[in-house]
Design brief:
Elements (H helix, E strand, L loop, with lengths): L3 H33 L4 H30 L3 H34 L3 H7 L2 H15 L3 H8 L5 H44 L1
């Protein structure tokens, strides 16, 4: 099992990389949307999740570092961070369901939103997002009520979890880029057709 210094170094490096990824995604989105022009209702929500998921990954790391500073026992640090991860996962799940509801309602009156929600990429990533957000809630139930999950598994999950939020950010990032480039290509075709 990792010692507290190793855990602290891992969380520090992960937080730094996550912030770097967020900066890259922000610059890329800004560049692409400077060519597209206007943002849609879907774009705003996707950009929110790009920021939220990356920041959440970093917050999990910062929480872990705070626990390492005040607690000397590795197992207790892992369990506290593990519990915090599921609190943040619950917040993520709530926001995801809320945004999905808002987008579905908007799609009833906005044809552009309806079109973007029904692309194969969006449908695929939404399914993956539901799996990432809701399936892990089985883990604390198993850990605290059975012997099926060991502390080594908790360590693995605590180290992996910030990267799950990072992966979720790339889902939103990919959808943003996909929708923007699709609009740019459609504009080019219309311009060529009118020419």
């Amino acid at each position: 099992m990792m010692n507290l210094d190793e855990l602290s170094n891992f969380f520090t490096l992960t937080a730094e990389l996550t912030i770097g990824i967020l900066a890259f995604q922000g610059i890329a989105v800004t560049f692409i949307f400077s060519r597209k022009g206007e943002w849609t209702y879907v774009d705003v929500w996707e950009f929110f999740f790009v920021i939220f998921t990356n920041v959440t990954g970093a917050v999990v790391c910062v929480f872990g570092i705070c626990m390492i500073i005040v607690i000397d026992d590795v197992k207790e640090v892992l369990e506290m961070t593990w519990n915090f991860i599921f609190v943040m996962l619950a917040v993520t799940a709530f926001l995801f369901i809320y945004s999905d509801k808002k987008l579905r309602l908007r799609s009833l009156t906005d044809s552009e939103v309806a079109e973007e929600l029904n692309t194969p990429l969006t449908i695929f990533f939404d399914k993956v997002y539901y799996v990432i957000v809701f399936v892990p809630f089985v883990l604390p139930i198993l850990y605290y009520n059975t012997n099926l999950i060991s502390i080594d598994f908790v360590l693995f999950w605590v180290l992996l979890s910030p990267w799950l939020w990072c992966a979720a950010s790339f889902m939103s990032f990919s959808k943003l880029i996909h929708h923007a480039l699709r609009i740019v290509e459609e504009d080019k075709m219309e311009t060529a057709g009118n020419g």
